[in-house]
Every structure is written in C-alpha cells, then in structure tokens.
C-alpha cells in the first residue's frame, strides 16, 4: 500500500472491478476495496466471498441475475481517514468507469466528508476515472505503482496513465445474452431475437460507451469476428499490444491461440473477468482489450 518518492508517502487505491490478481496487488502495494454483489438474495463481497470460478457457477445456477452495489462515500471516507492517520501525503485513487457506476462520484463526496472530519489534513487525493473496466485499467494501475516505486514523478505517472486510458478499447463476445439484457447493454428485443436466431453480438466498450458493432450467427463465428474488428480498429498502428479476457470457459484459450496466430505475438496477459464485470457480461464471455488509436 505504501511507496515513497522523495519525501512523499503515496498510497495506491482502487476498487475490485480492476480484477488485479492478489499476487500482483501485494507485489505493488495496491489497496483494493471490494464491491458487494447481490444474487438470489445472497450478498457476496467480491474477492472475499468466493472465487471467480465459483461466482460464474453461481450465476449459471441462479434463478435471478446479479446486481452490484457501489462502494459508499462513508466507506471511502473511512479509508481516506486511515491514510491520513498513517501519515500519507498522497493517495492515487483509480475507479471503475464513471459513466457505468456511481463509484467515482461517491469518492468525490467522500473527499468533502474528509474535509469536514479532518479539516487539518494536508493529504492530496488524486482521483482518476479509468473510463473502463477490469484489467483493462488494472494492468496499468500496476504499471503506475511500479513506476512510482522506481522513483518516477507522481504528476508524470498520472499523466501517462490518463493518456493510456484514453486509448484503451475492449471488444466483447458474450455467448449468452441473459446478463447483457438485464444490465441494459443490449435491449430485451435484441436479446430475444439473438437467442431465437442464435445471434451473438460483438460489442465494443470505448470511452465508457457500449456499442453493438456486429452480430454473428453461431458460437464458432464469435472469435473470428472479434479478431477481424480488432484488426480494423488498429490498422496502421506501430505499437500494438493486447490482452485476452474470459470467464473460465474453453473459448478463452481458443481466443488466445487465435490472436497469437492473427497478430504474430502473445498477449501481454490473459485474465479472468471478476464478479462485478461478469455480473454485467454474463458467465460465458470472452474479450480482447488493446491499445487503440489516439482519440
């Protein structure tokens, strides 16, 4: 949780939507606050109550669909107070996409509460909206922490992070539309037609916005469609890197192999979508995330 640059004592804080593996969080001293997920009347604390694989199985067996609860202003204020008491000079707080969650706004409210509770504090809170989800920002939170540990200037590192987030794109391929319909990512009519006709949407998440870019018929068309769209969106880029995401299904490894063949390089990492993200995408989903063109 702690790193020092010159005379500063800096905390790195994020939420469990980052999907950073605990080993990496421990390695880089990243503090992660968990979301609550409600499913069939049971309250699950992400990263604590069950593993990703267990949560995927719970979703497949559930009668209803999961809902998520953002971390509250009070919880954030309590965390900030802990940092003040521990003598931190700075907190870099990175949140899930602001347009898809109240988390960022709750953190803003918490800063006001902190000023009331600890008016004497001089700790600086650098609140960053990732504009995205999962390891799409989690990987670069780790990079931010690593650079700070190596003595990089805080302002410079934050600028690099924001610049990287402005380029990140996700292409998503859900094999089931149940959660996507419930979360509002696609309409009920589109979900009904999709299930009836065997259509699978190919979806982009860019700058916090969700767009159905294409529909393909049959599960075997999903991976080729994802790769084809990625190639189109990254044509002409010199520095291309990508990551593969999945929900523990065999298509995750199939996507990795297909991407390696198509792009001539391995992904930076392969990761599982956590509870908060898969609560919206469903338990049978694959995705590729990559550095796109500057916007």
From TrEMBL:
<dbReference type="GO" id="GO:0008289">
    <property type="term" value="F:lipid binding"/>
</dbReference>
<protein>
    <submittedName>
        <fullName>DegV family protein</fullName>
    </submittedName>
</protein>
<keyword id="KW-0446">Lipid-binding</keyword>
<dbReference type="Pfam" id="PF02645">
    <property type="entry name" value="DegV"/>
</dbReference>
<dbReference type="InterPro" id="IPR003797">
    <property type="entry name" value="DegV"/>
</dbReference>
<dbReference type="InterPro" id="IPR050270">
    <property type="entry name" value="DegV_domain_contain"/>
</dbReference>
<dbReference type="InterPro" id="IPR043168">
    <property type="entry name" value="DegV_C"/>
</dbReference>
